[in-house]
Inverse folding.
């Protein structure tokens, strides 16, 4: 048991060891999720965490361990994302698009509000990242993605959707960055920052999250009588940042594979299979390295 954690989780863990019925995983997945992780739904973030390292999932979601630190790339991405949200929120309300200085105010606020120690790269500083943010946001403002085509209708910014989409699995909670209605489709858009241009394999890697979200957005698309199209807007963090657009049309086979993967992960979580998955990539960036090392010892 980790010091300082057991006292707050004993009640929750006793529920798991003595479940109210043999059918709890199937009959009441939301209740089981509430007992295990303290919330009655799952997110793609939690599923992705388990796939990277089940022990990291346990430390973060079951035991509620706060991260020892946070990577600068994560804060940078969140800050850029918040600036883009501000831009489109203004368009959504019919006000003028923010200036670069106004977007950088949003960027700066995200950094100020971060309370965890920050892990910077070898050549990074807060000043160098802010300079990069200015270049990334300038590239965004100069691209046609920053302005809505007259044939498009912006119907959602940071739209939070929740629903039961996979049998035997808790509700899925998702937040869609942008929802745009065109004459031919409902586009669900995800913003990403990336060190380099995306390849086909990167799109394949990113697809499951948006395939889940496409199912949450299906009732909205059906109400308008149009299919769903997935789009990623990728802002590269290069010396000369670029804006990329990638699209994917959901198909039934891909959705079945994604749902099956999520169902398998949830079954493993229900079975409390929380092993350590050591690797150079996982361990070097893990925010729970010290705690995990103590458990291994």
């Amino acid at each position: 048991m980790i010091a300082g954690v057991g006292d707050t989780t004993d009640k929750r863990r006793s529920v798991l060891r003595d479940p109210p019925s043999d059918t709890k995983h199937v009959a009441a997945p939301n209740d089981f999720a509430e007992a295990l992780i303290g919330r009655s739904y799952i997110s793609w973030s939690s599923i992705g965490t388990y796939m990277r390292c089940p022990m990291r999932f346990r430390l973060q979601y079951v035991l509620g361990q706060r991260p020892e630190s946070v990577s600068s790339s994560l804060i940078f991405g969140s800050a850029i994302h918040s600036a883009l949200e501000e831009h489109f929120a203004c368009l959504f309300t019919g006000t003028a698009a923010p200036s670069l200085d106004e977007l950088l105010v949003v960027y700066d606020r995200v950094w100020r509000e971060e309370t965890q120690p920050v892990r910077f790269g070898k050549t990074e500083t807060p000043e160098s990242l802010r300079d990069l943010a200015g270049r990334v946001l300038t590239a965004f403002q100069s691209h046609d993605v920053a302005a809505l085509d007259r044939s498009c209708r912006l119907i959602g910014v940071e739209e939070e959707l929740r629903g039961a989409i996979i049998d035997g699995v808790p509700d899925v909670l998702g937040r869609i960055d942008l929802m745009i209605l065109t004459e031919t489709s409902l586009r669900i858009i995800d913003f990403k920052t990336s060190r380099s241009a995306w390849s086909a394999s990167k799109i394949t890697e990113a697809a499951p999250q948006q395939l889940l979200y496409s199912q949450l957005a299906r009732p909205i698309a059906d109400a308008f009588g149009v299919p769903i199209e997935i789009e990623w807007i990728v802002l590269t963090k290069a010396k000369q940042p670029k804006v990329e657009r990638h699209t994917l049309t959901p198909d039934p086979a891909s959705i079945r594979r994604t749902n099956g993967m999520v169902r398998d992960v949830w079954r493993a979580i229900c079975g409390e299979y929380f092993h350590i998955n050591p690797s150079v990539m996982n361990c070097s960036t893990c925010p729970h390295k010290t705690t995990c090392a103590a458990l291994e010892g």
Summary: The longest helix spans residues 200-224. The chain has a mean pLDDT of 89. The beta strands are 41-43, 70-71, 118-119, 153-163, 171-181, 186-194, 228-236, 243-248. The radius of gyration is 21 Å.
